[in-house]
């Protein structure tokens, strides 16, 4: 089904409901939740997904896994989507995480997602059931990508993180954050790790990588991205980016 809402079909007696939707440039879907788990795939454009636990950037040819009953909002930047809505029991067998995850989408999974949207809602033939089963098997095999930015619950630290995300820089020192929060450097580092699950330096790098993804997909040059994030050169930025993501920055420009 295309350009429909899951609430119209949530009652369907099938483990998987597949829907396709097209969204206007920079359309924002306010916070909401689904009874089923959702696999949200962007064939084009960029998606920003936010929950209380963090923020995720989803580049083209990737998808985001959203567990059942997870409150989330989505900003779409020129996106045509394909979504799978999966019954909770079935979803639990596919992916164990209770957090959103950005996952890679293989060429096979991509074709299966495109095909699934055109299936009858009450698919019943052996061929259609086999297609859905293969889709779920391929989904379970897809690796997760670290394209998320965990956010703390502590209000003052959350405000610091959100301010940083407005203009991230790889050289922002932990001591400055500690002073702002009236903590010793060692107390701040322990507090940050407890709140986000990452060390401050790992979080700062993750935030820069995820921000860079959004900028690259939007068409910003590698050199401009590198300089904006505080790197001395595009080669230094590219080395870090490839180490973290497994791809050169140009991979995401080429897929814009």
From TrEMBL:
CDD domains found in the cross-reference section: cupin_NimR-like_N
Matches recorded under PANTHER family: HTH-TYPE TRANSCRIPTIONAL REGULATOR NIMR, TRANSCRIPTIONAL REGULATOR-RELATED
Keyword Transcription in record: yes
Pfam families cross-referenced by the UniProt entry: AraC_binding (PF02311), HTH_18 (PF12833)
Annotated transmembrane regions: none
Lineage: Bacteria, Pseudomonadati, Pseudomonadota, Gammaproteobacteria, Enterobacterales
DNA-binding as UniProt keyword: yes
UniProt name for this protein: Arabinose operon regulatory protein
Gene3D superfamilies: Homeodomain-like, Jelly Rolls
InterPro entries attached to this UniProt entry: AraC-bd (IPR003313), Homeodomain-like_sf (IPR009057), HTH_AraC (IPR018060), HTH_AraC-typ_CS (IPR018062), RmlC-like_jellyroll (IPR014710), RmlC_Cupin_sf (IPR011051), Tscrpt_reg_AraC-type_HTH (IPR020449)
UniProt entry keywords in alphabetical sequence: Activator, DNA-binding, Plasmid, Repressor, Transcription, Transcription regulation
Domain HTH araC/xylS-type: 178-255
Recorded GO MF terms: DNA-binding transcription factor activity; sequence-specific DNA binding
Species this protein is from: Pantoea sp. BJ2
